[in-house]
Amino acid sequence: MKFKLSKYIAATEPLNPESRNKERILFSTRTGISMLISESFYSTLQHGEFDKIDLPRLTKLMDYELIVPEETDEFQEIIAINRLGVKDTRGIAMTIQATANCQLGCFYCGQSHTKHVMSEEIQEKLMDRLNYLLAEKKDADGMSVTWYGGEPLMAYSTILNLSNRIIALARERKIPYSSNMITNGLSLKKDIFRELYLNHHVHRFQITVDTTKEHHDKRRITKGGTETFDIIMNNILEITSEDYYTAKVKRPIFVRMNIDVTNYQDVTSFIDRLCDLGLKDKVDLGFSPLNNWGEKTAGDDVGLDVMTFAEWEIEWFMYAYKKGFNIDYILPQRNFATCMVVDEHSEVYDAYGNITPCYEFPYTPKYNEEKYIIGNLLKESDTYNHKTEVRGWYDDLSEYKVPKCSKCNLFPVCNGECPKKWYNGEGECPSMKANMEDRLVLQYLMDKSNLKTL
Amino acid sequence: MISLKDLVSYLDAAPAEHNENAGTSAKPNTVEYDKGHIFYAVQEFASDFCNERVKHAYFYGMHQKLLRACQNKDMNLAGYFLSKLENNPVVKNESENLISRNTLESIINPSVAYYYYAEGNNYQKAADYLALSLENIDYLIDTGFRDGMYMKIEQYLNSFRVAVSAGNFEEATSYAKDVMLYLLSSGREKFQFPFSEVLRSADQLKGILDMYINAIVFKTTGIPLLTGNGEEVLLTVFSDGPASYGAYVGDELKAALAGFISVLSNAGPVTASEELLAAVFSQKAPASIQYFVLRRLIDSFPEEMFSDSTTLVKLEEYCRKVLHLTDRQMARLLPVKQKA
C-alpha cells in the first residue's frame, strides 16, 4: 500500500530563516489543524519518505490527513465526506424574513422593499412546516432561527409571536433552541434588545456599521435620506451598558463593516472610535468585502479586489487585536457544509410564504425565477422543488463544473464559499485564498503557546 | 435506624476530594497503556517481524476517525470510515505475515464492532467482530506480546457491553465475571497468565478496577428494572470473589465490594449501618457502587424523610460533584424527587 502527501496543505515560509533550526507552520485543510514543523521534517514529507518518520508522529500525520493513500482522489473524497457530514447534521436551521420592509435605502442593497409583513396564515403554515421537518428528522437535536428581513425589527410583534411558538415547540420536544438576528440596529432600543435577548434566546445580533460616521451616513441612510450612524451607535452604547448585557453570552453584538474602495482606509479609525467608546470587550468585529447583490453591482463598481482586501484584512486583524478586541481565531475551520444551501433541512421563509435555500434570495427581484425557489408555504408540499440550482452545489462540484475549486488546496475549508456567486458567474475566491500564509503567521503570534511542534 | 438527613450529613462530611472519573465514560489511570500507547506497544512488538508501520498507522488513524464519528452519532460519516476498514482486502491480505495481520486486525476489529454496537441494531455482528479481535489478541499474546492482555481485558468488557445491549444476560454475566475475577485474583483464572505479570503498579490496577466496576455496574443498572435482570447479573458477577485477592487489590476496595455484595444479596430494605456507610462511601470506593447502594437506601427510606429540600440539594450535590453522575443516572434516583 503506497501513500502520498495530501494536496490539501498550506505552509508558511520558514518563520526563522536565520536560525539553524528553521521551522514553518503547516496547515492541513482536510482537518483544519495547524502545527509547527521543522524544515528537515517538511522536506521528509515532501519527498514522501514516510517510512523514516517515527510512529507517534506518523499516527498524528494520518489523523490530521496530511498523508493519504496514493490512489485517493482527494477532491472527490472531500465532497463525499461533505455530503455525509451534512446528512449527519441533526439541527434544523430556519431563516425567517418576517417582513419585506426596511427603513434604509443602502445603495448596494439588492432587495426591493415593501411594507408587507408575514400574515397569521403564513405564520401558521410556517409552524406546520417546522412540525413536518421535525417529523422527518426524528433525531433532531437542535433548532435555530436567524431573524432577518428587510429589517426584522419592522415586524417585531410577528417575531415575538413566532418566537414564542417555536420556543414552546422546542420545549415540548425537549430540543435545544438558539437564535440570532441580522439587523440594521436602528430600532434596536435597549428594551427590545432586553426582551429578545433575555426571553427569546436571541444571543447574537449582527449590526452593520459601515465604518466611520462620515462613510456610514453616506450609504446606510433612511429612504428619506436621514443619517443613522449616531442613532445606531447610541443604541449599541445603551445596550452594552446594561447590567444584563453579558448575562447569556460574553459579546452578544457583532459589528459588521461592509468595506469597499471608499471606506477601507478608515476602518482603523472606526476601530479607534469603538475603542474610545469602551466597546472593545463588548462587541465582536467582522470585515466584509462589498459584493454584488441581486441586480445591484456595487461589488463590481466600488468593491476592493480580493488581493487588496486580503492585504488590508490582515492589517485590520492585527490592529483590532492590538487594541484589545476579541480576534481569537482567524483560520478557517473544516466544515462539511459550504453554507445553508447544501443542507436540505435548512430553509428560508419570507413574508409572502416563499421558501428558498439562501437568505439572499427573498425580496431580491433577480431571484424571482423558479430555479431559485423551493416553493410556497401556502401550497402543498408535493409542489416543492427540491432541486433548486444552489442545492445541487456538491453535484456540480463533483462534475468539475467549478475547475478553480477542484484545483484549490483550500477547498476543504472553503467548499466554494458562496455557490450563488459561482452560478451568477461572479465566482471569486474569499480573502483567505490570498492571505492564508499571513493568517497562519498571525494566528501563531496570537497564540504561540498553543501551537505544538510536530 | 439512620435517616436520609443522617445519610446526607455523612456524605457531606466525607472527604471532598474524589478524583476518580466516574460514570460510564470513566477512564482508567493506566498512564502508560491508554489506547494510543497500546497501539505503539503492539507496533513495537510487530516491528521485529514485519515492516508495515506506515500502513498500520494509516488504519489506526482510520480506526480513530470511526470511533469519533460513532461517539458523535455521525453514523453516515462513520459508515464511510467503516467502508475503509471492513472487508478491506489490504487488511485481510492472506499473504501477509500473520503477526502483522493480527496486529492490524486487533486494532480494527474492535472499532468495527463498535460501529455495529453504536448503530444499535446489529449486536450479533458487533459480538462477532469482538470474538475475532479476541482471536487476534490471543495470537499476539501466544507469540510473545504479553501486554496484549490489556487489549484482551478491554475486549472482554466490550463483549459484556454488547451482550447486555443485546439482552444476552447469561453471556454478559460470563464475560463480566471472568474479567472481574481475573483482575481481582492472584491467579490466571481463564486467561494465559496472572494479570500481575503485566501490571505496573497498584495505582494502575486501582484505575483499571474502578473503570471496569463502574462500566459493569452502570451498564447493568441501565437495564430496565422491570426485567429484574440487572441485579441478578451483578449478583452473579460479584458474589463469588476470587480464591485469593491479588497483592495490589486495596483493602478499601475489598471492603466496598463486601458492602456492595451484602446489599445486592438482600432483596429487602437496606439497613444503613455505620459499617456499611464507612465501607461503601469511602473515597476509594468506585462511584458506581456508591450509586447503587445509595439507590437502594433511598428506596428504603419512608416518604416523610424527603420533605427537607436542603437535604435533597446536598444529596444532589454529592451525586454530581463527587460521584459525577450523568443526568440520566440522576434521573434514576427519581424516587427522591417523586417523594419530594
TrEMBL record, chain A:
What is the species of this protein? Chitinophaga oryziterrae
Q: Which residues cross the membrane?
A: none
Question: Does the record carry Cell membrane as a key word?
Answer: no
Cofactor(s), names only, from the UniProt record: [4Fe-4S] cluster
All residue ranges annotated as the Radical SAM core domain in the record = 98-239
Q: Identify one Pfam family in the record.
A: Radical_SAM
Q: Which UniProt keywords apply?
A: Iron, Iron-sulfur, Metal-binding, S-adenosyl-L-methionine
Name of this chain's protein: SPASM domain-containing protein
Could you tell me one molecular function GO term of this UniProt entry? Answer: oxidoreductase activity
Top-level taxon in the UniProt lineage: Bacteria
UniProtKB/TrEMBL annotation, chain B:
According to UniProt, the name of this protein is Uncharacterized protein
Query: Which species is this record about?
Result: Chitinophaga oryziterrae
